[in-house]
Amino acid sequence: MQKSYTAVGLALCLMMVGCQPKGADSGTGATNTPAKVTTTDIEVGTGREAKRDDYVFVLYRGTFAKDGKQFDTNMDDVTSQMPFGFGVIENGGAIQGFADGVEGMKEGGTRKIEVPWQLAYGEHGDGNKIPAKADLNFEIKLLFVLKKDERGVYDYNDNKVGTGPEAVDGSTVEIHYKGTYLTGKVWDDSRVRGETVKYVIGKESDAVPGMVAGVKGMKAGGQRTLVLPPDLVFGPYGNQSIQGNQPVKVVVDLISVNGNKG
Question: Which end of the chain has fewer beta carbons closer than 10 Å to its terminal beta carbon, N or C?
C-alpha cells in the first residue's frame, strides 16, 4: 500500500468500569503483587504497530477464563458487524487489560489476551454480563491502527493502471465504486444500484471526501483501492449511509475523465 496526504480534513461494553489500579487488594490482604495481562501471539501482523495514544480497530471474542463461555464478540459474522474502535492506553475507551494487551500488536495480527479481574471489571463486575472478580480471555484481530498524525492520510494501491486521460483538479470524473468497512460489510455499491457517480475534483460534492481526493492521479480505465481513516470519510458522526468513526475500504473504477474513457 502507498500512502497519500490530503488536507481534506458493538459498541462493546469494554468501557472502563470498575477497574482497580495495579496492585489493588484482591480481598486476601495482598497489596504488593500487581495484576498483569498475559498475551500470546497466534499470528504476528505485518502492518503498523499499535502504540500508546494510537486509535485502533479490532475484531474480538470475549470468553470467561473459568469455563470458556463466550460473553461477547463481533467475530461471528464479520460481514454484518462493525470493528470495535478504541484508544490504546492513554485515550481510553476499553477496559485497561484489553488496551494493555493490544499494545505492541501489528495490523493483521491475532493475539490471545488473558485479563485478570483487577484489570477487567473489578470486584463488582459490570452489573450485567460480567460477574464480580471475573478473569477474562480475549481473542483479538487487529485490523487498523490510526496514528495521531495520520488522520488526513489515506493508503492506496493501483490494482490496474488506466490508459486514458488523467484525473486532476477540475476534472469531471465518472466512477463505479464498492465501499466496505474493514470487516467486509458493504455500505454502498454503485453497480448494485445500477448507476455511476460523477463529480468534479476540487469542488464540493456529496461524495466521500477521501474518495474525491483519492481519485486524483488515476487514469481512465484504471482501478484503485483506497483505505480511508474516519476523518476522510464523514468524521465521528458519519452520514445516512456510513457509520461514524469507522475507517473504510473503497475500490474505485475510473470510467471516464471529462467524458473520455480509457
Answer: N
